[in-house]
Design a protein that fits this description.
The chain is mostly helical. The chain has a single domain (about 5-65), classed as Winged helix-like DNA-binding domain superfamily/Winged helix DNA-binding domain (Arc Repressor Mutant, subunit A, Orthogonal Bundle). Helix content is about 45%, strand content about 5%. It contains three helices and two strands, in the order ββααα. A two-stranded antiparallel ribbon has the order 1-2. It is globular, with a radius of gyration of 14 Å.
Length: about 80
Amino acid sequence: MFDRITTTPEIMDGQPTIRGMRFPAKTVVRMVAQGMTDEQIVAEHPDLEPEDIRAALRYAAAVLDSETYLPLTRTA
């Protein structure tokens, strides 16, 4: 399911990365959250592919489905 998201103890201390590169999946998610388009991300980081971005977002969604949530401010 997450063939583009890998973890290797020797790479980034085992953080989830894109295809075994020294590029954390969370960095891709952060760039999307900051409003960068796929085209901007790939232009700035040519080793990434559009499918890497989709994989990082799918991985982040799966983590949110399975982990504890950070405390949020309550709404009325």
